[in-house]
Write a structure and sequence with these properties.
The complex is a heterodimer of chains A (172) and B (351). Chain A is mostly helical. In chain A, 71% of the residues lie in helices and 0% in strands. Chain A has two domains: 86 residues, Four Helix Bundle (Hemerythrin (Met), subunit A); 39 residues. In chain A, α1 runs antiparallel to α2 and α2 runs antiparallel to α3. Classes of the chains: A mainly alpha (172), B mainly alpha (351).
Amino acid sequence: MVAADLLVAQNVGFGIIALLMIVAALRVVTVKNVVHAALWLVIVLSGAAAQYLLLSAEFVAITQVLVYVGAVMVLFLFGTMLTRAKIGAEADLNNKNWGIAVPVSLLMFGVITWVLIDGFGDERLPNPDEQTQVPIQVLSDDIFGPYLLPFWALSFVLLVAVIGAIVLARKD
Amino acid sequence: MNALLAADLPYWAQSLLRVLGGIVAVLLPAGTIVYVFLFKMMSFMQSRLGPMEAGPYGSLQLVAEVGKWLQKEDITPERADRFIFKIAPLVVLVSTFLLVAVVPFGPDAWFTNFEAGVFYMLAVSSVSVLGILIAGWASANKYSLLGGLRAAGQLIAYELPMVLAVVGVIIQAGTMNLQQIVVAQNAGSIFGWNGLGNPYILTQFVGFIIFMIAVQAELTQTPFDMPIAESELVSGYMTEYSGFRFLTFFIAEFATAGVFALIASVLFLGGWGIPFAWFDWSTIDSVDDWMNVVGPLIMVTKMMLLAFIIMWVRFSYPRFREDQLQRFAWKVLVPVSLVNIMVTAILKVAF
């Protein structure tokens, strides 16, 4: 029997979106067309954004859409369309080392599951009716306060990547 | 009348009203902009009359046009990727509908009161790029693909100045909620004088100019219409579309123009509000209920004003070259908006 508090709207929504994400994720690696794979990936990433919304993490959800759907996927598609993107099925899209990815992804899944259970256990999310949303001001105060150093480190990594891309692309 | 406006509706009725309101808020500006500016203003600027036969002064021309498009054959090219080809215009239109959801039209006349409204607006406006890109690709046509790629390159380039221009407003208002940005402008004062509120077009004029230029580019309106350049690319990503699907692209283009004009008027012109000092209002709760009726009218007026500017520029300037377009975004708009953010932040701390 399912416990009564499991069938609330959020949980049902979570189940539907999670199922959709799993199907879409499998299609990303099985579909025979690069652009189709990218579009399935869009569904996976938007699904993640929807899950964040269900967790009432509004800011993270919007960031997910802005960064992944709006920028990363557009650049993905832009790059593939600029170089090679045939319409219809393509042969040999599979990398011959794909077998190695299976244990790696299983290991990732195990580690993430363990971390989540170890970190949160059966702690529950507070009821969304009780005004639990973290205001964005608090979020930004945290990022630019106690977490300033990691934030700077991340920005530095991105800066290195940008400069690296320019160095690689320059002809002279 | 006042009792009617203050009535508490059940949740389902509110939701239904909001959905209907959203459809109206997308389609009505689109139709008005097409008739008033695209048909009539362009004609007058070119010393001709424009449509005159259908209805008084051709005002029913749009109905005739929609009828014409709807009965045309829905053609899919033989080599095209059928499903993606068909779904692409809808992706573009959905982005427009998502965009209008955060625009406030009155103290209680809003669709969603998003805490991170400005941020949401920037995020969903970038979804339309995806639709344009896959439309260009799925058409299986070199011109379309080129148009789609140009559109993606341009929209990515101009999204950045748009985000940075809005940051100035966010710093000044101290919130990302569009409703609170409206309140902050109308409850504000200029050096103690509150007769006009404090519309951010005065303090954020640079940001306003950058925002409008970026909007022009996001809409691929004329100085920035490299992606649809009809004389070289035969309308780019729209080349292969006919009938209903072309109509969808067409509606999306002008509806997005209307919605961006609405957002610009919220961010820079004070939105639905009138200066609160006129009626001794102080906060949003003390605003009278009749603003829910007057507010949308004020919004439409401001929208028409900004849409007029967008169309005026569209009909006046020749097309940018691709390299000029990219250079303008990265070497002029981005640095200027970064300086704008810095100055705004310094002044915010100073005052």
